[in-house]
Amino acid sequence: MSTPQPPMPQTAAPNWQAAPGSSYPSYTSPIPVVRTHLGHALASEWTKIRSVRSTMWTLGVFVLLVVGIGLSVAALIAGNASEGSLSKENPLSFGFFGLLLGSMCIITLGVLTTASEYGTGMIRTTVTACPSRGRVLVAKSIVFFAVAFVVTLGSALLVALADVSMLDAREPSGQEWLKGTLGISLYMALLGLLSLVVGSIIRHSAGAITIMIGVLLAPLVIALFMFSESLQDLQQALFEYSIPNQLSVFYSQSLSNSGPSGWDPLWIMLGVTAAAFAGAYALLEKRDV
Amino acid sequence: MSRFSVGGMIELEGLTKRYGEKVAVNNLTFTVRPGIVTGFLGPNGAGKSTTMRMILGLDHPTAGQVRIDGKRYDQLKDPLTYIGALLEAKAWHGGRSAFNHLLCLAQSNGIATRRVREVLETVGLTAVAKKKTKGFSMGMGQRLGIAGALLGDPRILMFDEPVNGLDPEGIHWIRNLMKSLAAQGRTVFVSSHLMSEMALTADHLVVIGQGRLLADTSMADFIERNSRSYVRIRTPQRELLLDVLHTTGITAVEAGDEALEVDGSKAEQIGELAARHGVVLHELSPQQASLEEAFMQLTAESVEYHAHADALPSEQQELRRQQQQWGSEWRRS
Q1: Mean pLDDT in order along chain A per 10 residues (289 residues)
Q2: Which residues pair with B16 in a beta bridge?
């Protein structure tokens, strides 16, 4: 009979005597021991963010939205505007619509950077490899912020150049150039960073994305339905401090004349993100993973 | 705490973890030593995984402490080259390839990329290194987890239920791997709920039940103490036989189902006695209690999820039911 024997234990006599008594032979690894630091965590997080498809998808859709809508709006306006009607306009401001929609992609990627680790169980591997949890959060933040900033800046710059060349509008000032490209990109990257931090607090992708979309849209939508006279001040504040309006401030075309102006939105977002970051940091140290 | 200069000791002292009312780990004190495979045995829900998570600093203990060569896990500057762990299966992002998963781990501890290829080779996943891990079978997932544990060539290795989902060939492989790692002088700490598995691999045994320490003994001692041999006897003339045995100084106990049991290997002696006194025997069989039975006896009091609770007195049943409810709540949260 040639039935294959299952490779089952033939260990009839396990070698119990192998256990050493009091002298412990210690193992020494040939692998050099390295004191880990933030640089290692950064390299690790960079590998993580570039090696999952969701990064490519969210950023791909983001570029498509920002550049696609930006160029379409520019072409549409260039084709339909009557002679001289745009002469007082800041041409960069037409990049606003694409970025407003694109912000959803940045939010999604930000949340996924942290929350997806909880969904998959990866977080336990991550924290085992780097027990300094704060370092993990800092590394994730730096890598994500850099990626989001560079991609937004590239897209916004492309749309800005197209707007200036295609539209028969006035020449934007240096300050307007700075706000419409660098400023808006920093703002978008911060919005994404806030999402990352919220993802770390909520530890659930869908939940955190819902919260962030709510933060993005709810103030504006709620304000729309505040018909009562007594709520007018609140309505005004909700309009002015809603994220879409803060975005438009970078193109100096706020929905109202009061409220944040100049570089204010950037400082507001910086403050909110810093506070959320501190909370996430404390929670991360305290909670079990 | 540690007075030993050698590396690779895991020391638990009064380690306790509470989840609300439920005590998952209750005042555990024991030491895991290098050079041997230490089996960590307990029924499902006994607190094995929670204990391992606390060793790795993933869960914070409610009380007590755990030290690795005198340090808390989060004080280790080179965690992966010090201690490697296989926790639960599939603790990674399914969209990432096996290679990239190990690469990001390696980078976080400054381990060379070359080492990633080495461990993939060791666990036999080289062919699927570039494939997304979400398509991996349970056995492949287990191998990837083991690759992650071996990545830093650490002096301490912890495996939580490593044979789960492995085929016989894989089980054989992991057994030999653990033994050879221990033979190199490393500390190997492996959990299981199967006594038979531990009997084949472990040199030392730590048994817990409902979070409490039930035994901390060498495997040889455990076997010696627990593999009780006895003789099972059935006879239609039980009063006569009992008298005969009594006069010879042999104690027989009732074993239910009309049978008697006598401790030790006295089958021949009893057979001869019965023949001499003309006692009819229907059965005279030498028996050996298995390690599995010994383990079940040891943990019987503390098994959390009984398959049949109907044999228990009602008071105890009520208690069990409560415990089960706590357990399920804890799982859900």
Answers
A1: 41 37 63 89 97 96 97 91 79 92 97 96 95 97 98 97 90 91 97 98 97 95 87 89 92 70 94 98 95
A2: B63
Cβ distance of A35 and B77 shorter than 8 Å: yes
Distance between CA atoms of B8 and A26, rounded to whole angstroms?
7
Question: Computed over its alpha carbons, how large is the radius of gyration of chain B?
Answer: 25
Task: Give the list of residues 6+ apart from residue A205 with CB closer than 8 angstroms, or none.
Answer: A111, A112, A115, A116, A119, A199
Determine the residue of chain A that is closest to B99 in CA distance: A51
A257's CB contacts (< 8 A; 6+ apart) are none
Give B108→chain A minimum CA distance, Å. Answer: 5
In chain A, domain spans: 39-286
| ipTM reported for the complex, 2 dp | 0.86
Determine whether B132 is exposed, middle or buried from the number of CB atoms within 10 Å of its CB (0-12, 13-18, 19+): middle
The C-alpha angle B173, A124, B182, rounded to 5 degrees, equals: 35
The pLDDT value recorded for residue B303 is: 65
- What three-state secondary structure class fits A249? helix
Which of A33, A53, A132 lies closest to B74 in CB terms? A132
Among chain A residues, the shortest Cα distance to B79 is held by A129
Residues of A in contact with B148 (CB under 8 A): 125
- For the segment B169-207, what is each residue's pLDDT rounded down to a tens digit? 999 999 999 999 999 999 999 999 888 889 889 999 999
**Rg of chain A over CA atoms, in angstroms?**
26
- Give contacts of B93 with chain A, Cβ < 8 Å: 48, 52, 116-117, 120, 122
Where does residue B138 rank: exposed (0-12), middle (13-18), buried (19+ CB within 10 A)? middle
* Total Cβ atoms within 10 A of residue B127: 8
pTM for the full predicted model: 0.83
pLDDT digits (tens, 9 = 90+) for B133-152: 999 998 899 999 999 999 99
Q: What separation in angstroms does the CA of A161 have from each of A77, A93, A180?
A: 15, 12, 11
Q: B148-151, long-range: CB within 8 Å, 24+ apart, which pairs?
A: B148/A125, B148/B84, B148/B86, B148/B101, B148/B102, B148/B105, B148/B119, B149/B84, B149/B85, B149/B86, B150/B84, B150/B119, B150/B122, B150/B123, B151/B80, B151/B84, B151/B102, B151/B105, B151/B106, B151/B109, B151/B111, B151/B115, B151/B116, B151/B119
CA distance A143 to A147: 6
The length of chain A in residues reads 289
CA distance B140 to B312: 42
